[in-house]
């Protein structure tokens, strides 16, 4: 890469960042652990949603040692509502690995970071550059968009060839003296000005260096990925009540959300899912029947390319509770207990429709 271009790009981007960066809680910290937590929470989740979760999480688990010692259920309960619970499980496994292998301190080397559970190339680059000032690149969706435009590189965002090119460009560009600020500036530019649609090129600090801007078609980069087929799934779920308490189950093997409590349910081939399919599941695996079941409004939820519709019934549970077949545990939770349980978001929606949360 041309040295003058490199120098100009870094200077313009860093000057702009110093003036325009958003004041975010994790930007006030140099604690590698706090930066790690924020980076994991920010994967797949909006900044505004993350802020209160980040603050609560660090209050409860202020150090790697505190997170490593915690019960998994405590960690998941604090994550409840953020979704993608696998991130929380891996974060805790990572904390335990740091406690065992590195004496409770995160290593500063990106390669050593990548050997920890839940830390991929992006997170390793973020921790190494932001917390330890190592000149490590990072690439996320925002960086792919900005750099594919600046260098007019063809391909769609997930395309392996384009990803490889963008990583190489990011590695060449990263500022050796302020790598953390540089990486955050690139992402900030993508999040605020270099948006997917209608980028604000006229306010962009690197507009004079941008090939896509010169070509007059910035939105053409990166290209749209080939459309993914939507898979529609139907579920029948039970809100089985005993007085004010509601039944939750832990499946032995879940399609999603392994290890979490959730509503008893059955996937169905046909839409709408019927109460009959659910009745058989309740009887044979939980020893229960629903007395005078009331249909709740159907709810929908998206997970990756899946669109899941849940048809739910609520009623008083009759019978002697057992956990068999696909369920390893089953018990009734009071309303107060329910508030502290990590639940899959599609079940949260059903419980909200039943006015239980
Ligand atoms: S000039 Fe426009 S397209 Fe190029 S990086 Fe800036 S905002 Fe993005």
What does this 3D model show about the protein?
The protein is an alpha+beta fold. The protein has a domain at 231-353: Nucleoside Triphosphate Pyrophosphohydrolase, CATH 3.90.79.10. Helices cover 45% and strands 15% of the residues. The protein has 15 helices and 7 strands. Strands 1, 2, 3, 4, 5, 6 and 7 form a 7-stranded mixed sheet that branches. A hairpin with a 2-residue loop joins β5 (299-303) and β6 (306-318). α1 (3-20) crosses α11, α8 (121-132) packs across α11 (179-192) and α9 (141-150) crosses α10. It starts with a helix and ends with a helix. Bound molecules: iron/sulfur cluster.
Short description:
This protein is α+β, with helices and mostly antiparallel strands and 357 residues long. It is 45% helix and 15% strand.
């Amino acid at each position: 890469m041309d040295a003058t271009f490199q120098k100009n790009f870094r200077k313009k981007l860093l000057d702009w960042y110093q003036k325009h960066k958003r004041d975010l809680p994790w930007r006030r910290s140099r604690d590698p652990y706090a930066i790690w937590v924020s980076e994991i929470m920010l994967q797949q989740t909006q900044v505004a949603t993350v802020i209160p979760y980040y603050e609560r999480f660090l209050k409860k688990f202020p150090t790697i040692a505190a997170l490593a010692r915690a019960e998994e259920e405590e960690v998941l309960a604090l994550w409840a509502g953020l979704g993608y619970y696998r991130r929380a499980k891996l974060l805790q496994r990572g904390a335990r690995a740091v406690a065992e292998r590195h004496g409770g301190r995160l290593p500063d080397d990106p390669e050593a970071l990548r050997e920890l559970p839940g830390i991929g190339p992006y997170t390793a680059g973020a921790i190494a550059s932001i917390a330890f000032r190592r000149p490590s690149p990072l690439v996320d969706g925002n960086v792919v968009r900005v750099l594919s435009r600046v260098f007019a590189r063809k391909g769609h965002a997930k395309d392996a060839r384009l990803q490889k090119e963008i990583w190489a460009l990011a590695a060449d560009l990263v500022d050796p003296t302020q790598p953390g600020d540089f990486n955050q500036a690139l992402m900030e530019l993508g999040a605020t000005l270099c948006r997917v649609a209608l980028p604000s090129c006229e306010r962009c600090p690197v507009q004079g260096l941008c090939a896509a801007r010169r070509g007059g078609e910035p939105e053409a980069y990166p290209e749209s990925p080939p459309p993914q087929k939507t898979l529609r799934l139907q579920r029948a779920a039970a809100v089985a009540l005993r007085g004010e308490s509601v039944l939750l189950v832990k499946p032995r093997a879940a399609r999603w959300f392994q290890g979490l409590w959730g509503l008893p349910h059955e996937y169905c081939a046909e839409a709408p899912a019927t109460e009959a399919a659910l009745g058989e599941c309740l009887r044979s695996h939980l020893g229960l029947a629903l007395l005078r079941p009331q249909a709740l409004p159907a709810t929908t939820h998206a997970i990756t390319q899946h669109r899941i519709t849940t048809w739910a019934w609520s009623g008083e549970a009759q019978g002697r509770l057992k956990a068999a077949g696909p369920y390893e545990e089953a018990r009734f939770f009071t309303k107060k207990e329910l508030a502290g349980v990590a639940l899959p978001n599609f079940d949260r929606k059903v419980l909200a429709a039943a006015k239980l949360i």
